[in-house]
């Protein structure tokens, strides 16, 4: 059993010049760079309520994953087997790729409620999970643990949505509760919290604040959505370059800077870019009455 959970000898014969690029592609879908790029595009060009819910899910499950990694400190497979060198010196259990992949793609399938969406999501999730084994970044125990925690996150969120106090809470209370969870995790962290913890907290704060202030709809012609996504993508890339330069110029505490960077990104996603796209006529100003509370939208 130990060999089954921790050994990767069975993976080596499967490696080939044809399959390796595909596995690198799948594993890219689970990294922070893709996720922080994908979520804003969905927020602008698809459905902001759906992607707000997805942002909350991803942030909470990523926080849980990082905390458990540092708590258990389970080593990754031997570095001699590794074909993915982006993981640094982080620990293996649970696999963040597996956990977040389950959350993102299965939640989107649930939101779409289409058979084809479940099939596509299943293929993507399976591809991401297998890529972590193929590239030697995780063992079987890691990906099983991450997958189960991803499923648990989805089930817990589905349950919370039906709590009356959650649905009736004012948006400010809801935002405060989410940030309190991040603060509690940061204060109880087994060691030094990674930089993306304050980054996610700042991002959440900016998006949750902006969601209530800037109302818009992507219920427009497809070409407008595609153009809005393209403009937003280019602007988001430029924002990252500006923030990178600003971080090099301002000698702030790294954790503080990551929190401010996340806040800037959140306000950009939920306020600045939607306002710009509405003024350009690519998105529609929201006219229909919205839920009275942020929690009702998330629920």
UniProtKB/TrEMBL annotation:
It catalyses: di-trans,octa-cis-undecaprenyl diphosphate + H2O = di-trans,octa-cis-undecaprenyl phosphate + phosphate + H(+). The lineage of its organism: Bacteria, Pseudomonadati, Pseudomonadota, Gammaproteobacteria, Pseudomonadales. It comes from the Bacteria. Residues 52-158 form the Phosphatidic acid phosphatase type 2/haloperoxidase domain. It is an enzyme of class 3 (hydrolase). InterPro entries: PAP2/HPO (IPR000326), PAP2/HPO_sf (IPR036938). The chain crosses the membrane at residues 22-43, 50-68, 115-137, 143-160, 195-211, 223-243, 263-282. The keyword Membrane applies. Pfam families: PAP2 (PF01569). This is undecaprenyl-diphosphate phosphatase.
């Amino acid at each position: 059993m130990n060999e089954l959970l921790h050994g990767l000898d069975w993976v080596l014969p499967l490696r080939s010049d044809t399959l390796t690029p595909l596995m690198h592609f799948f594993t890219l879908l689970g990294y922070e760079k893709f996720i922080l790029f994908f979520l804003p595009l969905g927020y602008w060009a698809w459905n902001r309520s759906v992607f707000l819910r997805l942002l909350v899910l991803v942030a909470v499950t990523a926080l849980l994953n990082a905390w458990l990694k540092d708590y258990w400190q389970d080593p990754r497979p031997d570095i001699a087997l590794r074909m993915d060198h982006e993981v640094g010196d982080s620990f293996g259990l649970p696999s963040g790729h597996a956990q977040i992949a389950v959350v993102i793609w299965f939640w989107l399938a649930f939101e779409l409620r289409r058979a084809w969406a479940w099939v596509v999501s299943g293929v993507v999730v399976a591809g991401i999970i297998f890529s972590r084994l193929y590239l030697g970044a995780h063992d079987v125990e890691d990906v099983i643990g991450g997958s189960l925690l991803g499923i648990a996150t989805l089930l817990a969120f589905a349950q919370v949505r039906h709590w009356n106090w959650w649905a009736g809470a004012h948006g400010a209370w809801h935002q405060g509760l989410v940030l309190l969870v991040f603060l509690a995790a940061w204060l109880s962290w087994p060691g030094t919290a990674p930089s993306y913890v304050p980054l996610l907290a700042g991002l959440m704060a900016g998006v949750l604040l902006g969601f209530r202030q800037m109302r818009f709809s992507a219920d427009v012609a497809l070409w407008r959505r595609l153009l809005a996504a393209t403009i937003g993508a280019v602007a988001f890339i430029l924002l990252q370059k500006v923030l990178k330069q600003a971080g090099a110029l301002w000698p702030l505490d790294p954790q503080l800077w990551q929190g401010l960077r996340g806040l800037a990104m959140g306000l950009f996603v939920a306020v600045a870019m939607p306002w710009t796209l509405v003024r350009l006529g690519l998105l529609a100003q929201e006219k229909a009455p919205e839920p009275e509370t942020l929690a009702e939208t998330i629920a």
